[in-house]
What we know:
Layout: H1 3-33, H2 51-84, H3 90-101, H4 106-113, H5 117-144
Amino acid sequence: MTAKEYLSQVHRLNQMIDIKLEEASSLRSLASRVTTAFGEERVQTSKKQSPMEDVIVRLMDLENEVNNDIDTLIAMKEEVIGNINKIDDYRLRLLLTMRYINNREWEEIADNMLYDVRTIYRLHKQGLKEIDKILKLSVDITKCQ
């Protein structure tokens, strides 16, 4: 896994959580519209869940998935931040944190750091090289154990 892939996994998981939260909102809306027919005679004896039950069960499952994803995201962010903080150059730490933890755009990072965008790209490349070194070092240490 490259440094960029490693750092980008935080953003991707965050996007997946957002998508699941939108789906949960949609299911809540659907659950408020689903109606149950009372007083109908049942011909079949098999037990079938009502549409409302189906929606509520799906919503509960989705909320559990979101909670698990959030736990994973927190652990992932802690790990990534820990590795970013191992970089000596504060500019690289700041840039990588703004980009991969805070999901900032390049122009916003450049404005915030008072650099032009080309300088930010150059610093980003240096930061990725530093993360690559840190990741390779951690893999080497694991192999030795």
